[in-house]
């Protein structure tokens, strides 16, 4: 299922815009329509969150099952402990991920997608599939651009 403007519109309409820069958690006038094209619109914060590569990877993993922190870290190649912690905290704060702490020693913490987080599974899965499918074409385009830049540079010398 491809990411469509309807999916993006649905997410950004949760946070109507105001005429001045407002944080996501402030009360906002109902009369102002959300628009990610508006530099002052808090919906850009939503777009920043859901378009982040670490968010996409965490959502993909949690779409399969509930996971513990160390399990997420093992599965996501290249993510630092600091970045995983920050991303999980942001996702939890935004209501996309649920965090369950068990009262045991040592502490046991599990992460799962919330109801709202589950609405991101298909759009982000489509984005990941698109990235994988078009990777060779994108790499070829970059190689051509580098070769052209090198030719232009040597011609200017």
Description:
With 157 residues, the protein is mainly alpha-helical. The protein has a single domain (5-156), classed as Winged helix-like DNA-binding domain superfamily/Winged helix DNA-binding domain (Arc Repressor Mutant, subunit A, Orthogonal Bundle), CATH 1.10.10. 55% of the residues lie in helices and 9% in strands. It is built from seven helices and three strands, in the order αααβααββαα. It has helices at residues 5-12, 43-51, 53-62, 69-75, 81-93, 115-118, 121-156, and strands at residues 67-68, 97-102, 108-113. Strands 1-3-2 form a three-stranded antiparallel sheet. The longest helix is centred in the last third of the chain and has 36 residues, at 121-156. It starts with a helix and ends with a helix.
CATH class: Mainly Alpha
Mean pLDDT across residues: 82
What is the helix/strand order? HHHEHHEEHH
Shape: extended
Structural class: mainly alpha
CATH topology: Arc Repressor Mutant, subunit A
The share of residues in extended strands comes to 5-15%
Distance between the termini: 49 Å
**Given the structure, what is the number of helices?**
7
Cα Rg: 20 Å
- Give a count of the beta strands, DSSP E runs of length 2 or more: 3
- Trace the largest sheet across and list its strands: 1-3-2
Keywords for this structure?
single chain; 157 residues; mainly alpha; Arc Repressor Mutant, subunit A; 7 helices; 9% strand; extended; disordered N terminus
Task: Write a brief structural summary.
With 157 residues, the chain is mainly α. Helix content is 55%, strand content 9%.
SSE layout and pairing:
Blueprint: H1 5-12, H2 43-51, H3 53-62, E1 67-68, H4 69-75, H5 81-93, E2 97-102, E3 108-113, H6 115-118, H7 121-156
Antiparallel strand pairs: 1-3, 2-3
